[in-house]
Design a protein that fits this description.
Layout: H1 2-18, H2 29-45
Keywords: Membrane, Transmembrane, Transmembrane helix
Transmembrane segments: 34-53
């Protein structure tokens, strides 16, 4: 799930950068890209994945 969030954030950052949209400092393309990198790092680390229940035979 966090991988999809990262992809969406990267796309938003690309749109802000490509369209040269003037945003405030909070929603600059760099900050949105860094949020995407954080979500991607959490996804790769396994955080946000569903828990699997282990059953003993």
């Amino acid at each position: 799930m966090l991988g999809i969030v990262a992809a969406v954030l990267f796309f938003i950052a690309w749109l802000i950068n490509a369209a040269d949209i003037g945003t405030n400092d909070v929603f600059s393309s760099t900050n949105v890209m860094l949020l995407g990198l954080t979500a991607l790092a959490l996804h790769v680390a396994g955080i946000g994945a569903g828990r699997s229940v282990r059953r003993r035979p």
